[in-house]
Design a protein that fits this description.
Elements (H helix, E strand, L loop, with lengths): L27 E6 L3 H20 L7 H23 L3 E6 L3 E6 L6 E5 L3 E10 L1 H4 L3 E5 L3 E5 L3 E8 L4 E5 L3 H22 L1
Length: 195
């Protein structure tokens, strides 16, 4: 059953000192998620639990050094796997007037901010795969560039002014490319007016 439509009053448009109407700032936000990596996170938590179990309830007769190495190894492997996977379970991409910002995981780390005045172009990539980049996560390949890959699928490839390429997997990547290209046109027009 449909709800009745409601009409809300339109907020007043902001005005500059000269009386000209200025459009409100527009922000595009996109996300991509990989639920499969939760399985790896569970494996990391299991390693941590094993390390704690060894430390608390040990019946090892091989000596304290072997026990200590096992506990530290399990804890270190568990923490690395757990953080590595949770950091790349999802990615959030935000495009505003000044920059593109990429935040990974639940705490937003690693994070990358790319000012749009450093971007030369943006392209839609129909298929980005972890295989292309050597796995999931924050990747760098000298012949391709840098990427944040959290899942297989569409993405955005930014061509930077220094010749490098930055790729990120995100849902609705075509819309992101459109927004970035619009921002780049506005930046170009602003630069030509100032010159």
């Amino acid at each position: 059953m449909r709800e009745p439509s409601r009409e809300y009053p339109t907020p007043p448009e902001p005005r500059t000192g000269s009386g000209a109407v200025e459009p409100p700032p527009e922000v595009w936000i996109g996300r991509a998620t990989n639920r499969v990596q939760w399985l790896l996170a569970i494996a990391g938590a299991a390693c941590i639990a094993l390390g704690v179990e060894l430390a608390v309830d040990s019946t090892w007769t091989s000596g304290v050094l072997a026990l200590l190495m096992s506990v530290i190894g399990c804890l270190a492997a568990g923490v690395l796997v757990l953080f590595g996977t949770l950091a790349f379970v999802h990615v959030a991409v935000k495009v505003d007037d000044d920059c593109l910002e990429v935040r990974c995981g639940h705490i937003g780390l690693p994070r990358r901010r790319i000012p749009l005045d450093h971007v030369v172009g943006a392209d839609f990539v129909a298929s980005v795969t972890p295989r292309q980049w050597g796995g999931w996560g924050y990747r760098w390949r000298p012949e391709i560039g840098t990427a944040v890959v959290v899942r297989r699928g569409e993405g955005v490839a930014l061509k930077l002014g220094d010749g490098r390429v930055f790729t990120v997997t995100v849902d609705d990547a075509e819309a992101a490319v459109g927004v970035i290209r619009d921002r780049l046109r506005l930046l170009g027009a602003t630069k030509s007016l100032k010159a």
